[in-house]
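User: Predict the complex with magnesium ion.
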Amino acid sequence: MKQIDYELYKKAIIKYGSYNQIIKSVEELTELNKELLDNSFGADNIEHISEEMADVEIMLEQLKIIYNNIKKVKNYKQEKLERLRVRINE
Ligand SMILES: [Mg+2]
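Assistant: Here is the predicted structure with magnesium ion placed in the model:
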């Protein structure tokens, strides 16, 4: 994560509080969930999907700071990508 973004996220967490940012994350995930479901039912909503994906990415970055697990997430991601790489190449 870029240092400038990290500092902004940190300020947001201090300003709004960890609890509120966790609730906000759940809200943003729900909004993306809805857009993806709408799309699966035929909606032409790539603009909305794109916006909600951006919201979710922003909240995921803040969650990593709140839970102090940037490294853990990175390690799980690498592990899972490696597993996927193996499966895809089978
Ligand atoms: Mg949103």
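Residues 28, 31, 52, 55 surround magnesium ion (CB under 6 Å).
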